[in-house]
Amino acid sequence: MNFKTIITTIAVLGTGITLAACQMDAYQAPNPNGSELWSGYKTATAETRAMQDDDFANPGMPMVDSAAALYNKKDGEANMSCADCHGAVDDPKGGSKGLPMKGVSARYPVYDADTKKPINVELRINKCRTKYQKAKEYKYESDAMLGMTGLIALQSRGIPMMSTADNPSDELNAAWKAGEAFYYERRGQLNMSCKHCHEDHQGELIRAEVLSQGQSNGFPTYRLKWSKLGSLHRRFRGCNGNIRAEPYGYGSDEYLNLETYLAWRGRGLPMEGPSVRK
Amino acid sequence: MKHTKFMTAAIGLAFVGAFAVNAQAADMPKFTIVNDTIPASLTGKPGDAANGRKVAIDRKKGNCLACHVMPIPEQQFHGHVGPDLHGVAKRYDEATLRMRVVDPKVLNEDTMMPSFFTTGQHRVTKKFEGKTILGAQEVEDVIAYLKTLM
């Protein structure tokens, strides 16, 4: 064994130890979900599940189909389509620029260096529209935005949510912490926090409703109650309203932080969007 | 004539306003906690158990069935989040029941159960800001009803 080999061996070992340390560091926060990670699919009726399982029966899909046309349509002053940069929406290579849609929804929200805040798929779409297409933003809860987020979510079906935002070295860590604080903060006249329903009493009945684990992996979701696809932030607003708390705005910092935190709570859950729920 | 109509409306509004303020003032949460119980009636009057049962069912009032199984057979789908309230009066006396309805967080700071007669929660919607979930007499009515659950 010559000197060079020894140095290389030490370097390799050192890298391994550092990587292992990072790995441990990344999951240092305890799993708050309980023994099982589950989405609302688990407690949905057979009929609702069947709708989600079959894209032809999924009532959220017509909106997604419309978005697929929009995806390929040139728009804005730059006269560019999404496909011009990303390739076909289901192209695993993501066109000539190598920006595939596959896995995006499972990875988001990510850190936006421009705003120094989390950016979710909705805001990312609008950033592309204003920055590259020179087009008008989609309204947050518009059909075009819901269809487009549904179309992008579809490319991540079955891919586990991935978040390392609990890691102090992760750029999203400050947002993760703020989201965690939000999750455990009581609010509204009924004075409840997210954790009271979705952690302490998950799986239990509120009248005829099963309390979910509050996971975000199925969004946008077609809620039969809404008769429409809806965003995660719409659901947050509904939850807040139910406990008589003033909801925050679509795309607000508070909800972006919460979305960042929920992506971490759901890490490992396969993506289901666009899902179907009661 | 227009002027008169306007005056009448203004007087009417002032009257409604004064009434609203009075109603709210009457329901401002005032109670005395003794050893984690509230022995005295919030209104000084006895409760009406029949009305208390209605308040317990009403989804916009007590909505007790959201979380508790209760001897209210005509209503379907009782929640299972909280304890079954059959026989609750055997387990708790009136002063303890009152504490548990008014502000259960005094007994368990981590409970999910709302405090039905407190104000000052974080970020309450405008519609409910400064208001208690139940009025003082409604709390007494619910207590009177719960006392029948032997």
TrEMBL record, chain A:
Active site annotation, chain numbering: 239 (cysteine persulfide intermediate)
Signal peptide: 1-20
Bound cofactor: record note: Binds 2 heme groups per subunit.
Record-listed heme c 2 binding positions: 194, 197-198, 239
EC number, UniProt record: 2.8.5.2
GO molecular function: electron transfer activity; heme binding; metal ion binding; oxidoreductase activity, acting on a sulfur group of donors, cytochrome as acceptor; transferase activity
Family: Belongs to the SoxA family.
Domain Cytochrome c positions: 67-161, 179-271
Catalytic activity field: L-cysteinyl-[SoxY protein] + thiosulfate + 2 Fe(III)-[cytochrome c] = S-sulfosulfanyl-L-cysteinyl-[SoxY protein] + 2 Fe(II)-[cytochrome c] + 2 H(+); S-sulfanyl-L-cysteinyl-[SoxY protein] + thiosulfate + 2 Fe(III)-[cytochrome c] = S-(2-sulfodisulfanyl)-L-cysteinyl-[SoxY protein] + 2 Fe(II)-[cytochrome c] + 2 H(+)
Entry superkingdom: Bacteria
InterPro entries: Cyt_c-like_dom, Cyt_c-like_dom_sf, SoxA
Cofactor section: heme
Record note on quaternary structure: Heterodimer of SoxA and SoxX.
Name under which the protein is recorded: SoxAX cytochrome complex subunit A
Localisation per UniProt entry: Periplasm
UniProt keyword list: Electron transport, Heme, Iron, Metal-binding, Periplasm, Signal, Transferase, Transport
From TrEMBL, chain B:
Alphabetized InterPro entries for the sequence: Cyt_c-like_dom (IPR009056), Cyt_c-like_dom_sf (IPR036909), Thiosulf_SoxX (IPR030999)
rRNA processing as UniProt keyword: no
Cleavable signal peptide: 1-25
Single GO molecular function: heme binding
NCBIfam families attached to this UniProt entry: thiosulf_SoxX
Residues of the Cytochrome c domain: 47-150
Keywords: Heme, Iron, Metal-binding, Signal
SUPFAM superfamilies per the UniProt record, alphabetical: Cytochrome c
Name of the protein in its database record: Sulfur oxidation c-type cytochrome SoxX
Coiled coil: none
